[in-house]
Amino acid sequence: MVKNSFLKCPFNYIGGKHKLLPQLFNLFPKDISTFVDMFGGGFNVGININANKLIYNDQITPLVELYKYFQSNTTENILNYIHTTIKDYNIKKEEKEGFLKFREAYNKNSVKNPLDLYILISFSFNYQIRFNNSREYNCPHGTNRSSFTTNMEKRLISFIEKIQSQNIEFYDYDFKDLNYSILDDKSLVYCDPPYLITNGSYNDGNRGFKNWTLKEEKELLNILDELNKNKIKFALSNVTEHDGKMNDLLIDWIKKNNYNVETIKSDYSNSNYQKNSKNSKNDINSKKNNKNKEVLVYNFKKQALQSTLEHFD
Ligand SMILES: C[S@@+](CC[C@H](N)C(=O)[O-])C[C@H]1O[C@@H](n2cnc3c(N)ncnc32)[C@H](O)[C@@H]1O
After folding, report:
1. Which residues are paired to 55 by β-bridges?
2. How confident is the prediction for the chain on average, in pLDDT?
3. In this predicted model, what pLDDT tens digit does every residue of 7-63 receive, in sequence order?
């Protein structure tokens, strides 16, 4: 197995791409001017990218506020606030009372300290982030399992240091409202949206925010076509197949536009299906051996070939 020394989001983000970074980064171009993490989530991808400028976007406003707070406050002040608040509210992993009182106060306060969300996540079931439809935090207490551990604190410190050392802009827009006109041919737009065909069985999507439907999927594919027309590189993570369900819209779109597809494997062994390859069609359509077929769709030549081949059009 390839050693994964990439920085990891300091909480558990469902659908986070940390484990798959070695495979993704093997495909990404090396020389990136602006990297857009269009569905940034736990920021596992963007935080590890070397680029002149990073643009993080996600619709979950409190999460974006948290990252902005990490960007503009000292590590010392952040850690002091976390430790003091945990003590003041008597938040413990063994009993839920302190956590529930703190969660209630968080939901009642109209003006919130963004760090309170991080404290809640640290003591939540599976370290998850989740809101109900009224935008109240509603993740249950992670009794006897979740707390702000030394290991988490270390991860948080590294994450804050990295955020503060990079040129990053944070946005909480719907993906359609991002300004793509500032990008050039050395930019890379990375998309890790909620997966249309997996949403029924496990929701990695809205967490109380706007849902992901066929409409959003079509709008996203249109934006990617537009980027392609303007010679801007994109890479899209998705699944073409899940539990016998096929994402026909996505498959037809890939075939129609002849985009490149790489199968992404969780055991890190990599198989390459380049554009125009003999296997490419079979790979997209195959139902054999794989209940979940994760792919990266992209419109550029993969990194290893960059030195000799130009961006295709
Ligand atoms: C699979 S997660 C991304 C995980 C991320 N790549 C990581 O490694 O941590 C998908 C993200 O898309 C966001 N999202 C869903 N619909 C959106 C929309 N319409 N506009 C912007 N973000 C959206 C969700 O909030 C969620 O964080």
Report:
1. 36, 169
2. 88
3. 999 998 988 999 999 999 999 999 999 999 999 999 999 999 999 999 999 999 999
| C-alpha 245 – ligand 1 centre gap (Å) | 22
- For the Cβ of 217 lying below 6 angstroms from any atom of ligand 1, the answer is no
Give 184-252 as a DSSP string: -TT-EEEE-PPPTTTTTTS--S-TTS----HHHHHHHHHHHHHHHHTT-EEEEEEEEEETTEE-HHHHH
Nearest CA to ligand 1 atom 3: 41
- CA-closest residue to ligand 1 atom 7: 16
Q: Counting atoms of ligand 1 from 1, which one is nearest the CA of 18?
A: 8
**Rg for the chain (alpha carbons), in Å?**
20
- List, in order of start, the domains of the chain with CATH numbers: 18-59+173-305 (3.40.50.150), 64-154 (1.10.1020.10)
